[in-house]
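Form P-L/3: holo structure prediction, ligand cytidine-5'-triphosphate.
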Amino acid sequence: MSVLSGKKILLGISGGIAAYKTASLVRLFIKAGAEVQVIMTPASKDFVTPLTLSTLSKNPVHSTFYDEQDENAEWNNHVEFGLWADLMLIAPATANTMSKMATGNADNLLIATYLSAKCPVYFAPAMDLDMYKHPSTLESFKALQSFGNIMIPAESGELASGLSGEGRMAEPENIIAFLEADLSAKLPLKGKKILITAGPTYEAIDPVRFIGNHSSGKMGFDIANQAADQGAEVILVSGPTHLKPKNGSIKLISVESAQQMYEACHQYFESVDVAIAAAAVADYRPKFVAEQKIKKAEADFAIELEKTKDILASLGEIKKNQFLVGFALETENEIEHAKQKIRKKNLDLIVLNSLNDEGAGFGKSTNKITFIDKDFNIEPMPLQSKEAVAADIINKVIAHYA
Ligand code: CTP
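OUTPUT (holo model):
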């Protein structure tokens, strides 16, 4: 999945021949899953039509502070556009528009919006080769970059003038690749490796039967997706579930039993920065697994059980700098029991679920949790979707490294 997915992008188009390429640019943004609003300078409408761009972006396109033809026209609020956007891209950025951006000359909606934008601003210059090298253009580049704006350099090649050289706006595919690389590099968990356990475990009784539980794996998968979306390298060790990781970068290791989950976790734990145990691991397993299917010969039948290894506690024993997060599902004296688990398993953070809270627990799409950290700071959270809970958990990890 592209880092642009779900991003709100404000595309500012100024008046150069390269404006015709913005139709492809908008298409690529939409394909990447972004939402796009387009603002044009009046001059750019000579090169590409607002109708093309509104059709492709599925949003109205604006170029003036209000629509002069419409008696009931509303003010096109540049401040609102600026606040709406996660990212603003000015492409093509002509010498004229860049000079206005550099001096704050807000004589059109695009520049007024640029001056109101709080999000990162990228600009992709486009002009003829001599204009591109002119000292005043170079001054604009310098000024805009000193404001924190990010330049997507022009490419070399044939220019509209017939001359050949540097000044062509970067190709739409290259602009998308530039933005994706830049945004990925800035994700808060970039460079961090996270191990996550999810799902139930199945403990074999015989070749066809097992002891399991109702865990769907959703909580662990949501945490894995959030972590990967924030740039982490994720290893997801999951018991049997029908779920698939949404983020394609997640390394999924499928296991069945607690013992297999234990072994997979220990294979990776040393190399990770963070481990989050969201699996509902069976606490007991049959002491003897029958080699053949057990026949219903007797009226009564008993299975002798033995304890499985506590995976989380075993990671707590060997942890060095890893940030270790566990879950606790409690029915009484919740806070006290959770605090004991923090100490017993050497955790940095515990995510407490109380079965007394409505909407929490197995098979639900919502969860209500309380965070307790190793210093016993307690932070109750509201009832939320599991995705939102996963985001809160990953925000705790981000805060730890901030
Ligand atoms: N866990 C684990 N391996 C186990 C059992 C539990 O890694 N064999 C992890 C779970 O993934 C969870 C945490 O330990 O993050 C808490 O598990 P829980 O079953 O609530 O607690 P227990 O320590 O098993 O204590 P009890 O069942 O007695 O409450």
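COMMENT: The domain at 193-291+303-401 is CATH 3.40.50.10300 (Rossmann fold).
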